[in-house]
Amino acid sequence: MDLISQARAGFAGIDADAALKDKALTNLNTWFTHPDFAAYRPQIESLCQAGAWSTLLDSFYQVMPFGTGGRRGSVGIGPNRMNLWTLGASVQGHCEYLRQRFPGVSPLRVVLAFDVRQFEDKRKVYNPALPNPVLHLSSREFCQHAAGVYAANGIQAAILPPDSKRYVPTPELSFTIRYLRAHGGLNMTASHNPPDDNGSKFYDDRGSQLVPPEDQLMSEMVDEVAVIRHIPFADALRAGKVQLLDDAPHRAFIELCRHESVLGSPKADELRVVFTPMHGCGGFCAGEVLEAQGFRPIPVPEQATPDGQFPNVTKTPNPEIPECMDRAERVGTERHADLIISTDPDADRLGAMANRSPDGKGTFRFITGNELAALLTHFKLAQLARSGSLPAAPIVITTEVTTGQVTRIGRQFGAQVIGDLLVGFKYHADALWQLESTGQYGDVRGSVADFVIATEESHGIMATAGVRDKDSACAALLLAEAALYQKRQGRTLVDYLDDLNRQFGYFRNELLNIVLTGLEGKLNMARMLDALRQNPPQEIGGLPVTSFEDLQDPDGRMGPFKGDTDKAARNFLIFRLGRNEQAAKVCLRPSGTEPKAKAYIEVSGQPWKAGTPQDAWDAACAAIDVRVQKIATDFLTHALATIGQTPGPGADKLSR
């Protein structure tokens, strides 16, 4: 029996749509017979011999979708895996897009960046005794391959020298595109995903990821790619078709971040800050900025070296997860640190823990992404106001799922708040671009000179218009200065957060993940959202649903679709609950990178009133905590019931 016949027989035992099986067989046959894929053949044969039919079906049933910013997923063999072919097709599509976007412009230029990842088959999918073209494949090698595709298409790519020991983190890439006046960029990173994943994110000439309808145009061009032009990286380098990045953009980026300082340099050892890049690129941005500004960050030695396997990180290198900072917390305790700062592998996200005692001898409290958003928004507005540097009509930008405390804070300072954006910093960047080019965004009027800060609940901060993506470097500096400002008053960031809750109301924000894996999970996720939009619940967690909004409604506030990518991004439901002192909100959307739907839950209270006893305030906050859990449990139960499922034990567990 030949390989395709074996695969057909093997797929027959899998409960999946027949059309998907047929597509997998077609793709499998191409990869097994076409000379371009000859290097992959031994591993494909081995998977067939091992009867790994589920793996093969998942690897070949589709070409990995080109999402709103690029492709991201498991590195491996097949069109539904990240490999040089799927990257090459994406880059070829980007070349076609750039030629259409900038007709007649020559030379077209792009900037390439990469993180620390290297594929080592941690999941043990492939036969280690056979040749494997994806084994040991690093983000650097992915990027060098991309440079060869750009060069073959007459587009000059700027990339770090092959022997460079440093990296270009995500915020620096955004800055460098603008600094070099390039026409676009590519970032090879899977952010905080597991080590065996990788991804490609494409950027425009503004240093941001594409938004509708431009992302739709590029996605269509990627889908239409039939031939990938490519020359070896070494040949492109010798022919002068690749530009090697020098240190000038990096130095300018560090100075840009330092310019965001609102306090100036601290005195020697005035604040003790532990910093860890968790084996990623953060040492080349956030770490350098803190050092240059005089904070003398204390390292976590076992996590300081770039390493794409993240060997000394608990769970995953994601600042949203407190456990990943356990080693930093030990160092912080030993050194009586005031603050712990961490960054994820591509250094766009920031994580933090604050000491509860101003002498550094207390325990540490994790600061959530929503708390970082509120704290840094208030701190920067307050310091600009104190120094007389606050714009007359300052602008604060945030998303629909970020804590409403940011909006209350902004309005306290007379800020114009753009607070209803979709998830993703490309929408923050687009709002900034519209202000820059037209002087308005919706009802907001102003320019980039009025911009103060942009935030997102997933530990993303943008504090300068010179960067058009999440930026851990400026955020780290602002956070260190916020801790310094509090310490000078004998206080901590924990005290600061308590003050914000009293002044602006206690907000409890939680993320509930509804995990639905595999092909069946994707279908169930679509069924679930459609059922909820067609028949939204009248009550959630004991509170009436006072309004329901489906962002896919073409007659709603977002208007007609700008394309399929826009429609996918707007697969977003908003349930507003209760009123006034019992206000709450649930937002539901499918994840763009993981097999789950995300439910964002917020319950908020009113500001503390003068004369309120401490025990009454504590009781009011505790009641909000109880309400959040009740809403989470009820919403999860209702959502799963739409697809005939019930929650498993602990499925409704929240962060605390």
UniProtKB/TrEMBL annotation:
Keywords carried by this UniProt record: Isomerase, Magnesium, Metal-binding, Phosphoprotein
> What are its cofactors?
Mg(2+)
| Record CDD domains | PGM2 (cd05799)
**Region listing for Disordered, in residue ranges:** 302-321
| Limits of the Alpha-D-phosphohexomutase alpha/beta/alpha domain | 136-222, 253-355, 369-499
UniProt cross-references to InterPro entries, sorted A to Z: A-D-PHexomutase_a/b/a-I (IPR005844), A-D-PHexomutase_a/b/a-I/II/III (IPR016055), A-D-PHexomutase_a/b/a-II (IPR005845), A-D-PHexomutase_a/b/a-III (IPR005846), A-D-PHexomutase_C_sf (IPR036900), A-D-PHexomutase_CS (IPR016066), Alpha-D-phosphohexomutase_SF (IPR005841)
* PANTHER family the UniProt entry points to: PHOSPHOGLUCOMUTASE 2B-RELATED, PHOSPHOMANNOMUTASE 45A
User: What family does this chain come from, according to its entry?
Assistant: Belongs to the phosphohexose mutase family.
This one is known as Phospho-sugar mutase
Q: What is the lineage of its organism?
A: Bacteria, Pseudomonadati, Planctomycetota, Planctomycetia, Gemmatales
